[in-house]
Design goal:
It contains 17 helices and 42 strands. It is α+β, with helices and mostly antiparallel strands and 841 residues long. The chain has four domains: 120 residues, Alpha-Beta Complex (Topoisomerase II, domain 5); 80 residues, Gyrase A, domain 2, CATH 3.30.1360; 124 residues, Topoisomerase, domain 3, CATH 1.10.268.10; 307 residues, DNA gyrase/topoisomerase IV, subunit A, C-terminal (Neuraminidase, 6 Propeller). A hairpin with a 2-residue loop joins β10 and β11. α11 crosses α14 and α13 crosses α14. The longest helix is centred in the middle third of the chain and has 42 residues.
Length: 841
């Protein structure tokens, strides 16, 4: 019951639950379930290793009860229950779970049969030799620290991880709405791949896979085929078929199948039981007896005795089909990058680790440099004191107090306070000649070290070389051979062969949401229709870019900062017509304030192809497409941009094409590609068209013989115009009139070169999409207003349109002209000069 003094607060339960669950899910993702891409550890594992390090339980020290370690972790950093901490500690010590164990366990730490470990009051543990490399130089400010749960202590946000632990040991975890399953790899191979990447930052996946053959599981096994591996490394997701190692032997006159290695994370006792159940249920015929002869000395040994008339290979194939003697390992290379979960390719994992190690070495060098300078400063003071020892003794003898003596020393010899402090504390033994020489030698060594450290900080190549040298030391000490072999499978196909070749519509919005949709999802309609509901989007969002390409095409993303990124079309998220898509920042490593300005498709980067770009201010640039073949993780410079300029059009050309550049206020110019000289990737370009006040370039089209120029306005009007109406001019002029713009008819949205076989897909700012045939738009003059292509609302406008090939089975209704204005084309006259200017840059 509430009285009149009670306060009632109305709360939206749905909104409250949504917010609360979002906070919970983010906490699980960031603070529990997913590893950090830099050290490959989840928070609980990181806290266990750091606590062992803090407590001095290093490999050269005696074992200590796990109860002590678990209690320390709980009390200092991880108040989530002793079971979670001990389970994580146990896994770090299991040789059948970890490719390179981080904890050296003493006692019962469980078995591959699924036996649980002994209670933590019975078991003991200390750091393994390998884990020492995870914390090397952590006291040299190489990583950031954060307050623990009660603000009483500081804990590292990440460990220095002097070897690539994420790939070497892998990681598994289930978060809210996502999961990760990164398989372990061989240390030697991963370090070799890092060396290759340092020497060749543009190394391809094929080149990296010459170093990293595939996952290397602690329990061995055989990986069947390479397609799954390549898919996982190329896209971050894949399926790997892992098979047991078996031999067919004759034992006591009977043919037997002997299993010596089983797939990763398979419970051996459960596997044996499943085989026995299949025999009992008569699903597998031909097995006489089944024995598990595994022990500590021989390792895994499962003996399957066959009946006299059984064919060993037939029985074995059935076992592979019906049991976990052959298992599928699903790879999801998901990790936290700057606190955000991202699916990473193999190359991205290696690049992220290298970037982190560059930061670690830089911070360590800065720490060592600061300490060396501080020590050199003190030694310089001591040398000055020894050179003037009589005067120093006299000053101290005649001073009334130590502070007075230190101040007089500072004034007399221009010393700092810290130098005078060490002089006052200097013992009489330092006055001997040998001690003085030691100080002089130490000072010389310090100066040489300071010079060397400063050179490291100034030379990025030296930092990379230090990383590789230190990795080589770890490789020489801990590296071993592969345990998991890889066998070729006849008829195996590559990841791209598994993806059907089909046309897709790629859509990109103003707020950065991108998706691909099968072209068949858009059915053709009659001209002037209302269209169908397209993608769902927020009120302030609208589509900026839309084009059609094959799922196997490369898509080049050119940003407002002049950088280029590249993806395969099939790597883009697939969605329905109404799907919003994924934000581009979750797909491309865009920096703050960077957004995609233009996208272009290409099948390959063959010689003879060129990338032509035009900017808002009217500059144009042509560059060989082959220069963009090796796009790095952080992008490639595509064009140099002046301040306040941006890219408005990009097209592929073949050395002899013609281009038409259109402006918002209705001007256009047709030029030969050959009048644009080839330039480097960093060049700014030359003048393409002169612009009058208030005008800017909106579009660029490539001329195709037999086609016509389609001009579309923001109000949904449009018309086709014969190419002959646009005569070829020299670049740099004002061009000629393309469309008479006005507030009523709208300003030019863009142009496309189309023919009668094309379909046009248009989209408005409110997300409405319409598809129509280009042949329904008749040829008119350059001064014609055109016909209604799409009806838009009062406050809406056409924001993008693209062309695609017509589908024969599309439903099309022929209509008559609806009477839109169509005026005669007056005399074709040029507007303004067209003299070619000098190159700007």
């Amino acid at each position: 019951m509430f009285d009149e003094n009670s306060t009632v607060i109305d709360t939206d339960i749905e909104g409250l639950m949504r917010e609360s669950f979002l906070q919970y899910s983010m906490a699980v993702i960031v603070s529990r379930a997913l590893p950090d891409v830099r050290d490959g550890l989840k928070p609980v594992h990181r806290r266990i290793l750091y606590t062992l390090f803090e407590n001095g339980i290093t490999p050269d020290k005696p074992y200590r009860k796990c109860a002590d370690t678990v209690g320390s972790v709980l009390g200092r950093y991880h108040p989530h229950g002793d079971a979670s901490v001990y389970d994580a500690l146990v896994r770090l010590a299991q040789k059948f779970s970890m490719r390179y164990p981080m904890v050296d366990g003493h006692g019962n730490f469980g078995s591959i049969d699924g036996d649980p470990p002994a209670a933590y009051r019975y078991t003991e543990a200390k750091m393994a030799k390998m884990s020492v490399n995870m914390l090397t130089d952590i006291n040299k400010e190489t990583v950031d620290f954060q307050p623990n749960y009660d603000d009483r202590l500081k804990e590292p946000t990440v460990l220095p991880s002097r070897f690539p632990n994420l790939l070497c040991n892998g990681s598994t975890g289930i978060a809210v709405g996502m999961a990760t399953n990164i398989p372990p790899h061989n240390l030697n191979e991963v370090i070799d791949a890092l060396k290759l990447l340092v020497e060749n930052p543009d190394a391809t996946l094929d080149e990296l896979m010459t170093c990293i053959k595939g996952p290397d599981f602690p329990t061995g096994g055989i990986i069947m085929g390479r397609a799954g591996i390549r898919a996982a490394y190329g896209t971050g997701r894949g399926k790997i078929t892992l098979r047991s190692v078996t031999n067919i032997e004759e034992i006591k006159g009977r043919e037997c199948i002997v299993v010596t290695e089983i797939p990763y994370m398979v419970n051996k006792s459960r596997l044996v039981s499943s085989i026995a159940d299949l025999v009992k249920d008569k699903r597998i015929e031909g097995i006489h007896d089944l024995r598990d002869e595994s022990d500590k000395e021989v390792g895994i040994r499962i003996v399957i005795e066959l009946k006299k008339d059984a064919i060993a290979q037939v029985v074995l194939n059935k076992l592979f089909s019906f049991t976990q003697l052959q298992d599928t390992v699903g790879v999801i290379m998901l990790a936290l990058v700057d606190g955000v979960p991202k699916v990473l390719t193999l190359k991205q994992c290696l690049e992220q680790y290298l970037d982190f190690q560059v930061d670690v070495i830089t911070r360590r060098t800065q720490f060592d440099l600061r300490k060396a300078k501080e020590r050199a400063h003190i030694v310089e003071g001591l040398v000055i004191a020894l050179d003037n020892i009589d005067r120093v003794v006299e000053i101290l003898k005649t001073s009334k107090s130590i502070p007075e003596g230190k101040q007089r020393l500072c004034d007399e010899f221009s010393l700092s306070e810290i130098q005078s402090e060490h002089i006052v504390q200097m013992t009489l033994g330092k006055l001997t000649g040998m001690e003085r020489q030691k100080l002089i030698d130490e000072l010389a060594e310090l100066k040489a070290r300071i010079e060397d450290l400063e050179d490291i900080l100034a030379n990025h190549d030296r930092v990379l070389r230090i990383i590789l040298d230190e990795l080589q030391v770890i490789r020489d000490k801990f590296g071993d051979g592969r345990r998991t072999s890889i066998e070729n499978v006849s008829g195996e196909v590559d990841i791209e062969d598994l993806i059907p070749v089909e046309e897709s519509v790629v859509t990109y919005t103003h707020n950065g949401y991108i998706k691909r949709t099968a072209i068949s999802a858009y059915k053709a309609q009659k001209r002037g229709g209302k269209g169908v509901q397209g993608m769902k989007q927020r009120e302030e969002d609208f589509v900026e870019e839309m084009f059609v390409c094959s799922t196997h095409d490369n898509i080049l993303f050119i940003t407002n900062k002049g950088l280029m990124y590249r993806l395969k079309c099939y790597e883009l998220p697939e969605g329905s017509k109404s799907a919003k898509g994924n934000n581009i920042v979750n797909i491309l490593p865009l920096s703050e304030g960077e957004k995609v300005a233009q996208m272009i498709k290409t099948e390959d980067f063959a010689e003879g192809k060129y990338l032509v770009m035009v900017t808002k201010s009217g500059k144009i640039k042509r560059t060989a497409l082959s220069l963009y073949k090796n796009v790095r993780k952080n992008g490639l410079i595509a064009i140099g941009l002046d301040e306040d300029d941006e890219i408005m059009g990009a097209r592929l050309t073949y050395g002899d094409n013609q281009l038409i550049i259109a402006t918002r206020n209705g001007m256009a110019i047709r030029i030969e590609e050959t009048c644009i000289r080839q330039m480097s990737r960093q060049a700014h370009g030359v003048k393409a068209i002169k612009l009058r006040s208030g005008d800017h370039v909106v579009s660029m089209a490539r001329v195709r013989e037999g086609a016509a120029v389609l001009t579309v306005t923001e109000k949904g009007l449009g018309r086709r115009c014969a190419l002959e109406s646009y005569r070829i001019q020299n670049r740099g002029g004002f061009g000629m009139l393309n469309y008479k713009t006005s507030d009523t008819k709208g300003y030019v949205c863009g142009i496309k070169v189309v023919d009668d076989t094309d379909d046009i897909i248009m989209i408005s700012s409110d997300g409405i999409i319409i598809r129509l045939r280009a042949c329904d738009i008749r040829i008119m003059g350059r001064y014609a207003t055109g016909v209604r292509l799409m009806r838009v609302g009062e406050n809406e406008k056409v924001v993008a349109f693209t062309r695609t090939e017509h589908e024969e089975d599309a439903e099309i209704t022929a209509v008559e002209d609806n009477g839109e204005e169509d005026v005669a084309d007056p005399e074709n006259e040029d507007l303004g000069e067209s003299n070619e200017p000098d190159d700007d840059e």
